[in-house]
From TrEMBL:
PROSITE patterns: DYP_PEROXIDASE, TAT. Residues 234-418 form the Dyp-type peroxidase C-terminal domain. Pfam families: Dyp_perox_C, Dyp_perox_N. It comes from Streptomyces lannensis. This is Dyp-type peroxidase.
């Protein structure tokens, strides 16, 4: 399974539950401001007034991805090297508690992505930071992206009438082997940064800051293998990362393919957001390595060395060459059931369901039932969830099926961006 991206991105690419307890952001933050003994690390960090650096100063640091904007960071942002996906279930008592949760997540994301020095505390007090990255938190191109699952719109918080119209719980496709323990969730928090310690630091901070308001349902750690001497970034199947994606610099195209638009069928609050898909796909590495390279190329529809379409015979051929199927109706060059051809058959009937913004990661979970558990976290963003569902339905017939096993993930809606320092995640939904 190959990952696809735009040339612009390619140039820039460099479940245990939380302990339950009372959760109230106001008292939680006020305690930090007052310096009460015994305040949790997340509490102390949550108070922006207690931080040593001003928001303006820390935002200017090198490597900081702007947190505020019409859209969330971590979507059109060039993919960073490391990622953690946290699926959580909300345990807040009521809608006020849910609002407090989202405000706290906003406060933490704003500080962590900008960086700075956590407040100092007396030596005999609980630390104000977990210390994983040292005394100063560097931005490290960190992004935290919040998305909502269909289950959040049940009757707990009175949100049912405001659910995005296409948001549903992910159902298995024909060949899926879904494990319920790594599926779905009320919230998805996507944490991406250039280095592993940054994502782990952010994860620990977020989970400590939200105890009692949400609990972890499942977690997925992702990585992007570095480019080698041939400047190629490859997945566990040995194929090239990064082929085609909508140009994230093209505002019109992104509005067409990715971003939910105002005055559409979606609720007003959702404008500027996008549907967020995560699929945890296990690779049968041993079986794949027994397949001749020529057959691997026909299964995926691209050359293994270059990433170019299969009609290109040179190892130096550009992966930017566009596969053309009009002169190959019988699939003699690019098989009809190859991965890339089913994903985008280039027919008028499938044109509307062939473009999504992919932003995937590989994973390595060690051993599972005595076999290597290597795979791919397929991640995509699209204006309509039905676009992805139609594409994946076509892929039920792909030749890659015997070599992969989709086992988890979910469908979510990435909320619009936080507009300014007074705004917070999903404020339009909750007000």
């Amino acid at each position: 399974m190959t990952e696809e991206s735009s040339p612009a991105l390619e140039r820039e690419w460099s479940g245990d539950g939380c302990p339950a307890g009372p959760f109230a952001r106001r008292s939680f933050l006020h305690a930090a401001a007052a310096g009460l003994a015994g305040a949790t690390a997340g509490t102390a960090l949550g108070d922006r007034e207690a931080q040593a650096d001003t928001p303006v100063a820390v935002a200017a640091r090198a490597g900081a991805v702007p947190f505020e904007g019409r859209h969330q960071a971590g979507i059109a942002t060039p993919p960073q090297q490391d990622a953690i996906f946290l699926s959580c279930d909300v345990t807040a008592d009521d809608s006020d508690g849910l609002t407090d949760l989202f405000r706290t997540l906003t406060d933490r994301a704003r500080f962590l992505t900008a960086g700075g020095t956590p407040p100092k505390v007396p030596p005999d007090s609980v630390p104000s930071d977990n210390g994983i990255v040292g005394p100063t938190v560097e931005p490290d191109n960190l992004t935290l992206t919040l998305s909502l699952g269909a289950s959040l719109f049940d009757d707990r918080y009175g949100l049912a009438s405001r659910k995005p119209v296409q948001l549903v719980t992910m159902q298995p496709f024909i060949h899926d082997e879904l494990n319920s323990s790594i599926c779905h969730g009320d919230l998805l928090i996507q944490i991406c940064a250039d280095h592993r310690d940054t994502t782990v630091h952010a994860m620990v901070d977020i989970l400590n800051s939200t105890k009692g308001a949400m609990k972890l349902r499942w977690r997925l750690d992702g990585l992007r293998n570095p480019p080698r001497h041939d400047r190629v970034r490859r997945d566990w199947f040995g194929f090239k990362h990064g082929i085609t994606n909508p140009d994230t610099a093209d505002t019109g195209r992104m509005d067409q393919v990715v971003w939910t638009q105002p005055k559409s069928a979606e609720p007003d609050w959702a404008a500027g957001g996008t549907y967020h898909v995560v699929r945890i796909v296990h690779f049968f590495i041993d079986a794949w390595q027994k397949v001749p390279v020529a057959q691997q190329e026909r299964i995926l529809g691209r050359r293994k060395v270059s990433g170019a379409p299969v009609y290109a015979t040179s190892d130096d051929a550009s992966d930017r060459m566009v596969p053309v199927y009009t002169n190959d109706p019988q699939g003699l060059l690019t098989p009809i059931n190859s991965h890339i051809r089913l994903a985008n058959p280039q027919t008028p009937e499938t044109a509307a369901t062939s473009a999504v913004l992919r932003r995937g990661y590989d994973y390595d979970h060690g051993l599972d039932a005595r076999e290597l558990d290597l795979g791919h976290a397929f991640v995509s963003f699209q204006r309509e969830l039905n676009t992805y569902i139609a594409m994946q339905t076509r892929l039920e017939a792909e030749a890659l099926v015997p070599y992969i096993s989709p086992r988890g993930g979910g469908y979510f809606f990435a909320v619009p961006g936080v507009r300014d320092e007074h705004d917070y995640f999903a404020s339009g939904l909750l007000t």
